[in-house]
Design a protein that fits this description.
Blueprint lengths: L1 H13 L3 H8 L6 H8 L4 H17 L8 H14 L5 H17 L3 H7 L3 H9 L5 H15 L3 H9 L2 H8 L5 H8 L1
Length: 182
């Protein structure tokens, strides 16, 4: 629990703050290898927070995607596995992590499709009990995935995202409607 609280604090500190992220990565207790241990942790909450920290560091540029390519791939695969977790926190935040990874490194678009992220994101966005936040983040992640190539757009469309996005345009939550437009 204390480790998860520390990871949550680290995530809050590094979001959008490149210099602070660079300084924290220079410290042994917050280095990339230290965070990667949590990506492989048995606890889904710790894995999710570590993945979110690394994605936030990469998105700000504190962890240059070219320098931490293998770590980003491990984070991507761990996050895709978290989409199948029964945890509501994982279901809400895993699409956000995938979105951050896609924004920081365009090459990951193709790998997200290959990692099997599309089907769980479509399922989550269309799930009957999904919160508006889950739907919105899943639709945004699907939009980011399909933004780069026709091949990925075809994968997203084949998974059933087009009727899902059409139905989401009638959702009561404004965020879901906006995400469906992307």
């Amino acid at each position: 629990m204390a480790q998860e609280a520390a990871l949550d604090l680290l995530l809050a500190l590094v979001r959008g703050r490149r210099r602070l992220g660079e300084r924290l990565l220079a410290r042994p207790e917050a280095s990339l290898p230290a965070l990667m241990r949590f990506v492989r942790d048995e606890r889904p909450a710790a894995r999710l927070l570590a993945c979110a920290c690394i994605a936030a560091l990469a998105e700000t540029g504190a962890c240059a995607p070219a320098a931490c390519w293998h770590e980003l791939l491990a984070v991507l695969h761990a996050t895709v596995r978290l989409l199948a977790a029964p945890s509501r926190a994982a279901l809400e935040h895993a699409p956000e992590v995938i979105g951050a990874l896609l924004r920081c490194h365009p090459t990951l678009h193709r790998l997200v499709g290959e990692a099997g992220a599309v089907a769980p994101l479509v399922a989550q966005a269309g799930a009957a009990g999904a919160s508006a936040r889950q739907q919105e983040l899943s639709l945004r992640a699907l939009a980011l995935i399909s933004a780069e190539s026709d091949g990925l757009r075809a994968v997203v469309a084949a998974a059933g995202a087009v009727p899902l996005a059409r139905d989401a345009l009638r959702a009561p939550a404004a965020g879901v409607r906006v995400a469906a437009c992307h």
